[in-house]
Amino acid sequence: MEHFALFMEQSKKEKKNNKRYLFIVIGIFLILVGIFVIGYREYSNNKNKLVEQEKIELFFEEEVNDPIEEPKQEEKQEEPPKQVEPKKEINYVAILEIPKINLKKGLVDKNSKDNNVDKNIYTLKESTFPNDENNSHIILASHSGNSYISFFKNFKKIKFRR
Question: How far apart are CA 100 and CA 97, in angstroms?
């Protein structure tokens, strides 16, 4: 009987150790998943910022350079053109820059499908751009939390004079 009791006691200790190892493995797995999610989010945010900067630079280049038509040259048809998926183009109508809060973001037309508070700074439909009417006004909306789309998160740093 003593031998059986000793065997049962060792079996309980082994089960307890197995549970401990299982919790450790699950914990390490969850930590690794968390690190991956945070890393991917940072990578995605940085990539979006670079794309945004390129689009803003392109906007300013288009404003400065007038399109000049060059004479067409004969095209050689050695190889058929490669079919590439068209990139999603966002055409900005203006750039909002507030250096105090480190914000430089393009504004899309108020009737564009990209005029969405979950993607960009939203331009309300009631806005009138300077070319629309004599008394123009632009009403903007954006998130102010901690998300990557919270473009106005540092807006409280701006001090207005009275």
Answer: 9
Domain span at residue 127?
89-162
Residue type (1 letter), 46? N
Reported confidence tier of residue 113, pLDDT bands at 50, 70, 90? confident
The encoded tokens of residue 90 equal 């966002």
What's the full length of the chain, in residues? Answer: 162
Q: Cα torsion for 6, 9, 13, 19, to the nearest 10°?
A: 140
Count other C-beta atoms under 10 Å from residue 114's C-beta.
Answer: 14
Alpha helices (H) along the chain:
2-64
Residue type, position 21, single letter: Y
Q: Name residue 92's beta-bridge partners.
A: 108
The total number of structural domains that make up the chain: 2
Given a cut of 80, whether residue 84 has pLDDT beyond it is no
User: Would you state the pLDDT for residue 100?
Assistant: 86
The Cβ of residue 153 has, within 10 Å, a number of other Cβ atoms equal to: 17
Same-domain check for residues 59 and 97: no
User: In 65-99, which residue ranges form alpha helices assigned H by DSSP?
Assistant: none
Instruction: Identify the pLDDT of residue 56.
Output: 84
